[in-house]
Amino acid sequence: MDAAAHGHEHHHELPTSGRELDAIAGEDEEAARGERLVTLTAREHEVALAVGAGRANADIARELHMSVPTVKAHVSRLLAKLEVENRIQIALLVHHATDAR
């Protein structure tokens, strides 16, 4: 029997640091993604920073004076432009870029 059959589930930890993301994505790919941050519009950059700070869509909308659907559209564009799969990866890229300064 496997662990799930015994009621034990294995949870995979998401990467929590730029170094862990580098190990997963490879340093060259990480550098390329970081370079894509410069291609963001000013508004996308503001949204990326807010995502990086862990803010929810409703909070971002309120702080940046936009609608929640607009925030969602920006987040979707960020995912595509940065070639990442989730908000955590956006946050890691933002933090990694900030740390590199």
Short précis:
The protein is mainly alpha-helical and 101 residues long. It contains 6 helices and no strands.
Explain how this protein is built.
This protein has 101 residues and is an all-alpha fold. It has one domain (14-99): Response regulator (Rossmann fold, 3-Layer(aba) Sandwich), CATH 3.40.50.2300. It has six helices and no strands. The protein has helices spanning 18-25, 27-36, 42-52, 57-64, 68-82, 87-99. α3 (42-52) crosses α5 (68-82), α3 packs across α6 and α4 packs across α5 (68-82). It is elongated. The model has no long low-confidence stretch (mean pLDDT 80).
Order of helices and strands: HHHHHH
Mean pLDDT: 80
Which outline best applies? elongated
What is the structural class?
A: mainly alpha
Biggest sheet layout: none
Number of continuous helical runs: 6
Uncertain stretches of 5 or more adjacent residues:
none
What is the strand tally?
Answer: 0
CATH class: Alpha Beta
The CATH architecture term is: 3-Layer(aba) Sandwich
| End-to-end C-alpha gap | 50 Å
Residue share in helix: 55-70%
Question: Into how many domains do the coordinates divide?
Answer: 1
